[in-house]
Every structure is written in structure tokens, then in C-alpha cells.
Amino acid sequence: KTAFLNGDLKEEVYVQQPQGFEVLGQENKACKLKKALHGLKQAPRSWYQKIHQFLLSKGFVNTPTEPNLYVRQAETDLIMLVLYVDDM
């Protein structure tokens, strides 16, 4: 439920101040997002990129024919992980 909140934004995104958290005297100013939020069109992609980099750092590799399949040989075991990101 909160995976998308961990995605890093590559572009600048501004939103209205959340209701109840407005800065007095500056109600017309916007807030710059530092992380993705649910509902942003960038959220699924930014989360995918974050988890992709994490898996690569842990020794997983993408298969050339299926970019959502990650494989890692761990001693005598073969670990296969399918990653599917959806905004539903």
C-alpha cells in the first residue's frame, strides 16, 4: 500500500498545500514534492526504478527476454523473482 511513497521523483512536481496544513499568510503557495505520492502518473515508474536498482545491488540480473524477471544464483539455489508494478 505504501510502496509508491518510496519512489524518487526525477522531475520537479508541485502540489497545493494539503487542507489543514496551510502556512498562514502563504495559502496561495505550492509545495514541492520530494517523493512520489499515490495518484501521480510518475509514481509507478519511480517505484519500479527504485526496486529495480535495489534488486541489481543485491546481485539479481534481468533476463534479456523478460525485463520483469530477475534471477540470482545463491549457493545451490536459484532465485527467480517476477516484478509487476501496477497503480491499481
Give a written overview of the molecule:
- The chain is α+β, with helices and mostly antiparallel strands.
- It is built from 1 helix and 5 strands.
- It has one helix at 43-57, and strands at 14-16, 30-32, 61-62, 69-74, 77-82.
- A hairpin with a 2-residue loop joins strand 4 (69-74) and strand 5 (77-82).
- Pfam families: RVT_2.
- Keywords: Nucleotidyltransferase, RNA-directed DNA polymerase, Transferase.
- This is Reverse transcriptase.
The value of Rg in angstroms is: 18 Å
Query: In the residues, how many domains can be counted?
Result: 1
Number of helices: 1
Please report the distance between the alpha carbons of the first and last residues.
10 Å
Biggest sheet: strands side by side, in what order? 3-4-5
Helical proportion? 10-25%
| Poorly predicted runs of 5 or more residues | none
Number of strands: 5
Mean pLDDT: 89
Largest sheet, in brief, is: 3 strands, antiparallel
Structural class: alpha+beta
Helix and strand succession? Answer: EEHEEE
Basic shape:
elongated
Strand content: 15-25%
